[in-house]
Structure formats: structure tokens, C-alpha cells
Design a protein that fits this description.
Layout lengths: L1 H6 L5 E4 L6 H24 L7 H7 L1 E4 L4 H7 L2 E4 L5 H14 L5 E4 L6 H4 L9 E6 L9 E4 L6 H13 L4
Parallel strand pairs: 1-2, 3-4, 4-5
Antiparallel strand pairs: 5-6
Helix pairs in contact: 2-3, 4-5
Length: 171
């Protein structure tokens, strides 16, 4: 998902690691994530799916944020995609942290493919901002996102996400 968003010229992406790690582990995770993304982008460029000179620009739009800076990064985000394991317990822990730090108008999007968005409602504050935004895989090759709202999802949440995913810029 990060590569797909960063490839669109109007998005900066913060990958937020919510696990406490020592400095060496944080650096290793950031390096491994960057290397994996660079390899995927290089493959896309080699296949002609993106210009080769765009690889560096795309990578420059993605930051790996350590747990110690998560609250600040979440507070700056306009759209927050939760992508933790498919258990309600994992999602509850993460949504509690997200909701405590997110700005009031931030969209809260789960990437779940197995849990109904209505089952996530008790896990969030301001449920009108919650939507499921499930990316088809691999997201950087298949530019399709399934949006699943619940009856209380604010219409502007759907409009904003639809516009961002369809046009590559906020609606």
C-alpha cells in the first residue's frame, strides 16, 4: 500500500512501527523495508510500469517512523491505514493508540480482509471516520481498493478516500 500511495505524486507516506525497538533494531527494520520497496520499484521500472528515474522520488516520499515518534506522526496524518494482523485484539490495541493521537478529521481505515467493518466500531472513537479500505495484492501492481463503509460512515470519508485512490490527490 505504501508504494502505491507514494507513487502518486501528492502523497507522503509514513510507515509507523508501533513495536518498541532499540536503535539497532529500528535501523535494521527501516533498512530492510527500504530495500524491499526499492527492489519492488526497480522491478516495476524494469518491466516498464514506471519510469526508472521515478524510483528515487517514490522512495523519498516514504518514511519509516519508530514507535517513539508514532504519536506525533499519527497526529499529522490525514488518512491512517491500520494494517496489523487479522485479530480483534491486535486491532483493538492499535486503534486505541491511533484514536488517542489522530487529529479529529483524520480518516481511520482498516485494511482487513476478514473482519467486518461493523465489528471494528467498538474499537474506535468517532466511528463516523471509520471505513474498511482493503487493497488487492500486490497493491503496487493491482491499483484496486475495495471500500466498505458501515451505516454510520460519514459520506465525506467515502468521497475523500475515493478521490485519493482514484485521482492520486485529496478530493
Amino acid at each position: 500500500e505504501a508504494l502505491t500511495l507514494a507513487r502518486k505524486e501528492s502523497f507522503d507516506v509514513a510507515l509507523i512501527d508501533l513495536k518498541p525497538r532499540d536503535a539497532a533494531a529500528r535501523e535494521r527494520l527501516a533498512r530492510e523495508a527500504s530495500n524491499e520497496m526499492a527492489a519492488s520499484l526497480a522491478m516495476l521500472a524494469e518491466l516498464g510500469a514506471m519510469p526508472g528515474d521515478a524510483v528515487g522520488r517514490v522512495l523519498s516520499r516514504i518514511r519509516v517512523i519508530p514507535e517513539t515518534e508514532a504519536r506525533h506522526a499519527l497526529g499529522e496524518a490525514d488518512v491512517i491505514f491500520e494494517g496489523v494482523p487479522e485479530t480483534l485484539q491486535a486491532k483493538q490495541e492499535v486503534f486505541a493508540r491511533i484514536c488517542a493521537a489522530a487529529q479529529p478529521e483524520a480518516i481511520l481505515a482498516s485494511t482487513t480482509s476478514t473482519i467486518l467493518v461493523t465489528h471494528l466500531l467498538p474499537l474506535v472513537t468517532h466511528s463516523e471516520r471509520l471505513i474498511n479500505a482493503h487493497w488487492l495484492n500486490p497493491a503496487y501492481l493491482i491499483p484496486v481498493v475495495e471500500l466498505s463503509a458501515h451505516p454510520g460512515t460519514a459520506p465525506e470519508v467515502i468521497t475523500r478516500l475515493w478521490g485519493q485512490n482514484r485521482h492520486g490527490r485529496p478530493a
